[in-house]
């Protein structure tokens, strides 16, 4: 058995890490956080040039025809580097949704441009204040047009198009592709908790929309499961970076005449981070296996990876600040960039309570959880 | 990324399976396990039958070449690869077979003998250990030396080529049915703490060895105090150099961490089933959001441990060395056990008080968990190990280093 990534995949991971290190993606995160730009175009272009946006797109659609496993290792490194780019929206979500679809026209039109980075996509799903249930969607599609409002859409003011969930009549939820420069689209950029990743409210008023499917709730659930594994890898990458920051700082910081890393109060804190991280990482590997094999276990595996990775990133990022003492809570130190990103990733695609509930629901369905 | 056996692994698995199928009963479901008497609530009296069964099964395996697979053939093993050992373990766990008496000998004493005993001793002691004919215990902890193992005071004095041992050991699992023991003693009280120790093996039937059971909070008595009064050990049974006992002990402890695995008792499956059956405010407990959140946390831990183990097995299968991830296993599983047991009793509310078929496993786990969090390295010691040995953080500053042992305060001062 080989319950690990292949050598080629690990090599690819290393290449992405090298690029993000060289480009100092953490500093770039801060620049976006403090500046006027909505994302780091220069870094995004480098990721595009490296072919990362084309990873899962088959060659016939202008991609490089690799799989989700490659995307998992990329996601981990983007998380480690808290990269300020719309990768999760455009690649994990928009690209995967189109790949999942059987609409050949849309594939031919959009996949090559997504691969080349010419366009950026996103997934507009949340409404009002909570992550929607099937009955909670009010955006409505009728005769090729949609009307209604989606809130806090990740990269909503960056993306060229959005996949929008909307009622399609007869109590069904459909999935629609909407050009965000079309008539009747109003985009309000939000002031957010973590400005290193842009979010916007989007209102549609009789906006033209292409239908991917009029009965898409299951497709949407699957898309969320697929992306949950990728988000979880991103969270694990961020968690590991935060743990290492805490450890490195503790080894170099002296108090009471000794490195604070020699105090058990600090060692046990870092050990707890390690425990949380390893549980999450192992669950992520299983998620990666289920994702890449399109296994029936995906709903359980994805929720497990997502819940434990969310927990790990939260714990590592908050205890990293604590380990740094007062300096960890300054604007100047990078700790808060990871703390913000941890919180943001927890909210994108549904929060912890939602995924815990999904996990138990999927175990109830599968009947033999272990 | 896959879970598939290689060709060789598949072939070996088939071989293992056909032998097991011919010699044992397959479990019909996960809970269909062989239960030693003390687990099923029959008390101490049942232990001898459990031991007899375990010995018979071990001997059967030994005769067919399935005992201590990874040991050299000369010492009763099979020269198996680490992966073959894993496959055996995976397959054997699917069958209803007894066990639980030989782990300390085979897992801890065996590897030390292999490193430090003479060839003659290895040929004499290892095969019966593999066969389960002779059972070994480990005499390490003392009343004044638990996590601080190097603080032991049991005294060893050499006269000619015979050592005389005086002192007391504690928490010795299985001393009451053991034939031999490995023991670490202090041979020099004026040397610094870690420098004055010497390591032996001894016959537990030696004159002057007295074993007294410790009744645990579960009511069972698996552990013992062992008293040594002028016990004689020939110098030929010394393992390692005089004063080098700490180094030998570390070999044993490294193996202890491999031998102590998941905590047995209630796990996710039990609390999941209970939540489905149990009423909570007029509905089933599992439909309650707070209950679902708890269940999800435990499932994530259980799954995380399962796939951490898989990552390790995968490394073995690929011919590389497993990473340090498995060092989290006991901390996570012991705490999970305790919390699930407590929460299960909470869900059963008033009905959890009486001991019956349904409550017994939760009650037993609740009472058993504290000792699991302590045995084989406390949570705190294991976190130190993760911080120091896995993450490379520095040791605590020690006030007892390079000080003659007889000038260091030890034990309890109140």
Provide key terms for this protein.
heterodimer, A: 370 residues, alpha+beta, Butyryl-Coa Dehydrogenase, subunit A, domain 1, Butyryl-CoA Dehydrogenase, subunit A, domain 2, Butyryl-CoA Dehydrogenase, subunit A, domain 3, 3 domains, four-stranded mixed beta sheet, four-stranded antiparallel beta sheet, 11 helices, 10 strands, 52% helix, B: 414 residues, 43% helix, 14% strand
What does this structure look like?
The complex is a heterodimer of chains A (370) and B (414). Chain A is of the alpha+beta class. Chain A folds into 3 domains: 7-115, Acyl-CoA dehydrogenase/oxidase, N-terminal domain (Butyryl-Coa Dehydrogenase, subunit A, domain 1, Orthogonal Bundle), CATH 1.10.540; 121-215, Beta Barrel (Butyryl-CoA Dehydrogenase, subunit A, domain 2), CATH 2.40.110; 218-366, Butyryl-CoA Dehydrogenase, subunit A, domain 3 (Up-down Bundle). Chain A has helices at 7-22, 25-34, 41-49, 68-80, 87-100, 104-115, 217-252, 264-292, 298-324, 335-347, 352-366; strands at 121-124, 140-142, 145-154, 161-169, 172-179, 185-189, 199-208, 210-213, 254-255, 258-259. Chain B has 3 domains: 7-101, Butyryl-Coa Dehydrogenase, subunit A, domain 1, CATH 1.10.540; 136-258, Butyryl-CoA Dehydrogenase, subunit A, domain 2, CATH 2.40.110.10; 261-374, Butyryl-CoA Dehydrogenase, subunit A, domain 3, CATH 1.20.140.10. Chain B has helices spanning 7-23, 47-63, 82-92, 103-116, 119-131, 245-259, 268-277, 289-317, 329-348, 357-374, 379-390, and strands at 136-139, 155-159, 162-170, 180-186, 197-203, 209-214, 223-234, 238-239, 279-280, 283-284.
């Amino acid at each position: 058995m080989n319950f690990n990534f292949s050598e080629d995949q690990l090599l690819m991971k290393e290449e992405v890490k090298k690029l993000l290190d060289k480009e100092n993606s953490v500093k770039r995160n801060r620049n976006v956080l403090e500046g006027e730009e909505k994302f780091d175009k220069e870094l995004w272009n480098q990721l595009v040039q490296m072919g990362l946006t084309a990873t899962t797109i088959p060659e016939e659609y202008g991609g490089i025809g690799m799989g989700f496993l490659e995307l998992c290792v990329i996601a981990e490194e983007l998380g480690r580097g808290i990269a300020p780019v719309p990768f999760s929206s455009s690649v994990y979500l928009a690209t995967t949704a189109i790949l999942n679809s059987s609409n050949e026209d849309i594939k031919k039109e959009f996949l090559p441009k997504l691969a080349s980075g010419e366009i950026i996509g996103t997934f507009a799903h949340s409404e009002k204040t909570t992550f929607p249930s099937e009955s909670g969607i009010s955006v409505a599609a009728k005769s090729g047009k949609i009307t209604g409002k989606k809130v806090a859409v990740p990269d909503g003011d960056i993306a060229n198009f959005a996949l929008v969930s909307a009622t399609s009549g007869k109590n069904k939820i459909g999935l629609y592709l909407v050009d965000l420069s079309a008539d009747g689209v109003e985009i309000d950029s939000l002031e957010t908790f973590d400005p290193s990743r842009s979010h916007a409210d989007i209102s549609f008023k009789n906006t033209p929309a292409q239908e991917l499917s009029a009965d898409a709730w299951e497709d949407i659930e699957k898309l969320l499961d697929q992306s949950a594994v990728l988000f979880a890898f991103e969270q694990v990458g961020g968690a590991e970076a935060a743990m290492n920051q805490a450890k490195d700082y503790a080894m170099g910081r002296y108090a009471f005449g000794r490195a604070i890393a020699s105090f058990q109060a600090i060692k046990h804190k870092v050990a707890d981070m390690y425990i949380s991280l390893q549980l999450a990482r192992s669950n992520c590997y299983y998620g990666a296996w289920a994702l890449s094999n399109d296994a029936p276990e995906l709903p359980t595996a994805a929720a497990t990876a997502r819940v434990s990775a969310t927990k790990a990133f939260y714990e590592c990022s908050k205890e990293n600040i604590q380990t740094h003492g007062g300096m960890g809570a300054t604007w100047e130190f990078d700790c808060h960039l990871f703390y913000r990103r941890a919180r943001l990733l927890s909210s994108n695609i549904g929060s912890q309570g939602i995924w815990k509930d999904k996990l138990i629901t999927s175990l109830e369905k599968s009947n033999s959880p272990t | 990324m896959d879970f598939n056996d290689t060709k060789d692994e598949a072939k070996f698995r088939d071989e293992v399976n056909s032998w097991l199928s011919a010699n044992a009963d397959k479990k019909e479901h996960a809970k269909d396990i062989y239960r030693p008497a003390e687990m099923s609530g029959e008390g101490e009296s049942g232990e001898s039958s459990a031991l007899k069964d375990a010995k018979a099964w071990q001997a059967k395996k030994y005769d067919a070449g399935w005992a201590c697979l990874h040991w050299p053939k000369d010492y009763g093993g099979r020269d198996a690869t680490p992966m073959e050992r894993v496959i055996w373990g995976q397959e054997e766990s699917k069958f209803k077979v007894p066990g639980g008496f030989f782990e300390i000998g085979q897992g801890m004493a065996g590897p030390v003998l292999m490193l430090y005993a003479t060839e003659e001793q290895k040929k004499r002691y290892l095969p019966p250990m593999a066969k389960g004919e002779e059972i070994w215990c480990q005499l390490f902890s003392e009343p004044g030396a638990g996590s601080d193992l190097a603080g032991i005071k049991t005294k060893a004095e050499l006269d000619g080529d015979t050592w005389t041992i005086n002192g007391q050991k504690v928490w010795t699992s299985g001393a009451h049915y053991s034939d031999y023991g490995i023991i670490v003693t202090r041979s020099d009280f004026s040397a610094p703490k870690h420098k004055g120790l010497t390591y032996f093996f001894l016959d537990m039937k030696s004159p002057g060895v007295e074993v007294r059971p410790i009744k645990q909070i579960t009511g069972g008595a698996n552990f013992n105090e062992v008293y040594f009064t002028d016990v004689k050990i020939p110098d030929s049974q010394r393992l390692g150099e005089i004063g080098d006992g700490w180094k030998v002990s570390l070999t044993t402890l490294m193996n202890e961490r491999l031998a102590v695995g998941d905590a047995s008792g209630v796990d996710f499956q039990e609390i999941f089933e209970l939540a489905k059956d149990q009423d909570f405010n007029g509905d089933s407990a599992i439909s309650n959001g707070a209950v679902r959140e708890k269940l999800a946390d435990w499932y994530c831990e259980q799954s995380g441990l399962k796939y951490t183990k898989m990552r390790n097995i995968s490394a073995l299968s690929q011919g590389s060395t497993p990473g340090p991830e498995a060092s989290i296993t006991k901390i996570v599983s012991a705490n999970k056990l305790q919390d699930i047991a407590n929460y299960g009793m909470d869900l059963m509310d008033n009905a959890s008080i009486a001991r019956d078929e349904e409550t017994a496993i939760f009650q037993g786990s609740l009472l058993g968990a504290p000792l699991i969090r302590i045995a084989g390295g406390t949570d705190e010691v294991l976190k130190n190990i993760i911080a120091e040995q896995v993450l490379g953080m520095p040791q605590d500053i020690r006030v007892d280093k390079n000080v003659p042992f007889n000038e260091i305060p030890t034990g309890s001062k109140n």
